[in-house]
User: Which sequence fits this backbone?
């Protein structure tokens, strides 16, 4: 069954990448163009030379973006199917759709929302080029923390359910998760300052578009994977058996 789940996840990832690509083209790429224009104008005003493009802007927003999104979608879909296989039957008596939706929600919060709230997406011309390495390291550390904190919250919630009930267990584990993340936000370095005169509308439109791309990607994977898996389980009921240790 794991092989069929993995293949399904990768195919669903491609479909989700296509949906996310539309959001990136419609809302994200125009803001990137504005940011690049701001950077070029700033360099011109400072009489700095224009660095030659290694990859043209036209290739970046067409073939480059399509390739990157497709690879990311396939990888994310494959990892999602593994997470689903681990979670199915271990979150109570949830069916395939509900499990997939919950895994997608937890994944979005852990991998995207937790890092975004501390280190939101930055378009070109925002951020000190000398801190790219440290900012990247901080971002991926925040992703790792989000995964660990979310996993811990789910485990704690599952163990509290028999004693507190579903509602109280979810409330307690969510509150604990929020406290841990808030403490980490407090002790980690602040993001780079926004350059003076950079258009605030461009910055926030880019950030919203970036978060929207990820939201569409995760939501499509969760909903479509759950639907297809539920249909597959209906055709082969033996595959839908809940593990004995659920």
Assistant:
């Amino acid at each position: 069954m794991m092989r069929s789940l993995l293949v399904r996840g990768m195919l669903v990832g491609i479909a989700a990448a296509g949906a996310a690509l539309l959001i990136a083209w419609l809302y994200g790429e125009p803001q990137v163009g504005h940011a690049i224009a701001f950077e070029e104008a700033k360099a011109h005003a400072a009489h700095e030379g224009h660095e030659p493009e290694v990859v043209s802007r036209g290739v970046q927003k067409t073939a480059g973006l399509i390739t990157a999104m497709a690879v990311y979608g396939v990888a994310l879909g494959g990892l999602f199917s593994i997470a689903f296989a681990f979670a199915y039957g271990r979150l109570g008596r949830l069916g395939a759709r509900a499990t997939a939706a919950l895994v997608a929600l937890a994944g979005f919060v852990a991998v995207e929302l937790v890092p975004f709230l501390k280190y939101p997406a930055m378009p070109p011309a925002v951020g000190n080029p000398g801190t790219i390495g440290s900012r990247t390291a901080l971002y991926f550390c925040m992703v790792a923390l989000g995964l660990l904190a979310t996993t811990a919250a789910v485990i704690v919630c599952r163990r509290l359910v028999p004693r507190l009930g579903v509602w109280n267990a979810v409330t307690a584990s969510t509150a604990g998760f929020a406290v841990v993340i808030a403490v980490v936000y407090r002790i980690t370095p602040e993001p780079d300052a926004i350059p003076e005169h950079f258009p605030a509308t461009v910055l926030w439109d880019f950030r919203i578009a970036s978060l929207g791309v990820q939201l569409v990607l995760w939501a499509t994977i969760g909903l479509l994977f759950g639907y297809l898996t539920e249909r597959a389980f209906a055709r082969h009921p033996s595959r839908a058996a809940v593990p004995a240790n659920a």
Q: What stands out?
A: The radius of gyration is 21 Å.
